[in-house]
Structure formats: structure tokens, C-alpha cells
Amino acid sequence: MTKELKVTTTDIPGLLIIDLPVHGDNRGWFKENWQREKMLAAGLPDFNPVQNNISFNASVGTTRGIHAEPWDKYVSVATGRIFGAWVDLRAGDSFGTVVTVELGPDTAIFVPRGVGNSFQTLEENTAYTYLVNDHWSADAVSGYSFLNLADETVAIDWPIDLSQAELSEKDKNHPRLNEIEPLQTDPILIVGANGQLGRELVRQLSEANIPYIATTREQLDIANPAQWKEAFRWRSLRAVINAAAYTAVDAAETPEGRAAAWAANAQGVAALAAVCQEANLPLVHISTDYVFDGSLPVGEEYSVEHPIAPLSVYGASKAAGEAAASAWAKHYVLRTSWVVGEGKNFVATMASLAERGIDPAVVSDQVGRPTFTQDLAGAALHLLLSGAEYGTYHVSNTGPVISWADFARAVYEGTGHDPARVSDTTTAEYFANAEVFAPRPANSAMDLSKLIAAGFTPRNHADALTEYLN
């Protein structure tokens, strides 16, 4: 009876057994050894293989391994039969866990990077074939690990005693489990690590003990792809979070600013998305409420599906960046508003004015919700690490929609000053004497239901402000 295509989990996280339908008749047999659409539907990850290798083994008892490599591997048998053994060499609770399976033409196995792979042939003329999602590189030394086939701790019950098997001298001399340093998770690349969001991402990843590479503008200038396209071994990364942007909203209306905004927010993002697609890396990209024109009546909120209609050069460049990021299937575009974190921001400015005895007039005809970077970074990491559905999400703090003037009064009150010192003004009045200024969306309130449905609910902005000020 022909098997149905089926994917089964094992005791090693990410190690998957695949039952393959094999169709035979008097002429022989046929199988779809790798069929992306069907296998993704069955539960196999979309691992984007780039190379196919075949190992031919003439003798019974040929034994190879145990090798952990810095790429994912899809293993199957074209002819013959093997006894396969896999050992988790990654850091974590499953370090040292063993799974053994016999593989013939009707069974395959998906081996995630960092899991040691080995096999012993059970029939003559066995052809062992595997797809991998990276090319071999001597630069990837940190991603390799090796375990002795005879290790007493994992105690693999080889069908043919290793003393009678065919082994290479190199495989005979690999270290024991207690001599191995567990392999760490691939790092997340943070672009724009010196900004408000970048600093918070670094803090949260450090706190969670998740490996990362934090790049500043000097190390990776998003507007200059020639500087960084070849600077990383991209396939050795886990994901990319782009927290870099040109954010000088008013300066973007000048000829020089317009060019800089488009270079960073559109062309640079397009180059980054292309690199992520080539390396099969999820991309988290931060966008803005400025992609909307703000014409929704107060009381209504922008859904993620609402048509974009930016008013400014900055908004247009960010909208183009969204389109570029979204061209790669594995994307999270996070639109956010009124960002507050470590560094120069509206709350810090208002707190400084309050302390210096200044009574400001603040715009009251622009409404929305602030977004504290603790929540923005938390949302980005939740979506990425939980494997949430790719797509566009809105991220701000929860709570009532307020004006900038309301927000300023909350800062004054939170720092022990009289909120009545803050007076209202209009956008037109505020910018009356400005030589150059960008139009702002009057309504920046965004619907957060998609984010909340994905399992992340930001804090109420009043609570977030209190914690921030303290």
C-alpha cells in the first residue's frame, strides 16, 4: 500500500520525518523526492535549498558522521537503505538528544542546522541524497560541530558494530559529547542599533540571551548597499530587523533631504529585502503612520488594509520601503506612530521644558497614540520568534486616542508640574513661520487588532508613560 505524504515531529525540535509516496509497477518505482508546495502544506519549513548532493556507498556498513553543519538539510535515499542517527548539538534542553530512523526510498528526514547527522548503510550500492540551503564555506567554522560515532553518552545502537564498519579516520577521532561546546542559535542582525528602537531591541535580546549582531550606521549604512551587501555571511543569520531610517520629516522636503530619504527609506530597504530573499531570511521592517493621509474622521482608526496615501516626501519614501519589504514573502512590516524610547524624543523634550519653567503651546489637531519602544521591540520580537503569519501589522500602545497637546500635559503631570501650563495650538499656527515643513496626518490612530490576535497586546500608553518617567 502506498504511503500518504506525511510529516512527523521527533524528540529533537525541528527534526522532522517525512513519509514519501512511492509509486511502483513492473518497470520500477517513481517518487516526488522534493515537492515544495505539497511539503509545505504537510508541515515542512520553507527552507529554500540551493544545492543537491549525492553520497554513493558501495558497501554495507559504510558509516559517516556525526556532523552538525551551519545549514538545514533534507535527507533521502535514492536506492538502498540506511540506519540514520541524529544528535542535537545545539545549546538548550534538548542538547544530546538522539533520534534514530531507518530510511529507504519511502522516507526522508529534515535536519535543522546544528543537529548532528550520521548514517550507516544497510544495503550495498546505497545512494544517499540531500538538499542543503547554503553553499559550503570555510568561513562558517563556528557553525560546525562533530561528535564521535561511538560516544558513550548518546550510546547509538548501530546495527553493524563500529569495529566492523567502514569509517574514515577523521570520524573515528571526533570528540565525545562532554568535550563539545553546544552550538548557539544563529544571530539576529539589527540594522540601526544606535536608534531608539535599536537600543531597546539590543536590551531585550540581551535580557533573553538571544544572539544578535548590532550594527550602527558606520557599520551598515542602509542608504549605501555597496558598503554592506558583501559584509555578512547572510545565510548564517536567523533574521534581519531593520530599525534604521531617515526620519528628518521636514528636512526631507528639501532637495538634499529628499534624496537622502529615498536612499535610506526606499532604495536601501529594497536592497536589504533582496539580500534577505536570496538568503531566505525573515525581514522585520519598521514603517510609519505617515504612509496615511490622516483624513479619517477622529474616532476612526486605520486598518492594515486601508489604502495608503502619504502627504509628505518622508511618508512617500516610507511607503516605497513598505512595498520593497513586502516584495519578499517572509516579511513583517510594522507601522508605528509617535515613537518614544532612549534618546531624543517628545517626552524627553516636554520633560525638559517643564523643568526649565517653559510653558509650551502644543499641537492639538493631530491625534493618535504614542508607541514606547519597549512595546515596539516586544511586538517585533514576538512576531518574529513566535512564527506569526507574515504581513503588515500596526503597533502602538493601547489606550485612548489623544492629541500631542494631551500627551504633553500627561508628561507635565507625570513629572510633577501643572499640566495647565501646556496650551493648545493648531498645526498651521505652529508651522506659520517655518521655511520648510512637511504636512502631517491629522489622524494617526491605527487599529491594533491584528497584532493582538497574533498574541501581543501593548501596554496602555498612560501606564507606559508612568513607567518611562520613573
Topology:
Elements: E1 6-9, E2 16-19, E3 22-25, E4 28-31, H1 36-42, E5 51-57, E6 63-68, E7 73-79, E8 82-88, E9 98-103, E10 107-111, E11 115-121, E12 126-132, E13 145-146, H2 169-172, E14 188-191, H3 196-207, E15 212-215, H4 225-228, E16 239-242, H5 255-279, E17 283-288, H6 313-326, E18 331-336, E19 339-340, H7 346-355, E20 361-363, E21 367-368, E22 371-372, H8 373-386, E23 391-395, E24 402-403, H9 404-414, E25 423-425, H10 427-430, H11 449-453, H12 461-469
Parallel strand pairs: 14-15, 14-16, 16-17, 17-18, 18-23, 19-22, 20-25
Antiparallel strand pairs: 1-2, 2-10, 3-4, 5-12, 6-11, 6-13, 7-10, 7-12, 8-9, 8-11, 21-24
Helix pairs in contact: 3-8, 5-6, 7-9
Report the biggest beta sheet as strand number plus sense, adding barrel if it closes: 6 strands, antiparallel
* Rg, nearest Å: 28 Å
Coarse shape: elongated
- Strand content range: 15-25%
Task: Point out poorly predicted stretches.
Answer: none
- What value does the average pLDDT take? 95
What is the distance, rounded to the nearest whole angstrom, between the alpha carbons of the first and last residues?
68 Å
Write down the oligomeric state: single chain
Q: What structural category arises from helix and sheet content?
A: alpha/beta
Question: What is the number of helical segments per DSSP (H or I, 4+ residues)?
Answer: 12
Strand order in the largest sheet: 1-2-10-7-12-5
Query: Can you give the helix content as a percent range?
Result: 25-40%
- Tally of DSSP β-strands: 25
